[in-house]
Amino acid sequence: MALSATHTSTTFTLGKILAAPFIAIGNSFVHLMESNNRVREVEFLNSLSDEQLAGRGLKREDIVRHVFRDMMHL
Question: pTM higher than 0.70 for the full model?
Answer without folding.
Answer: no
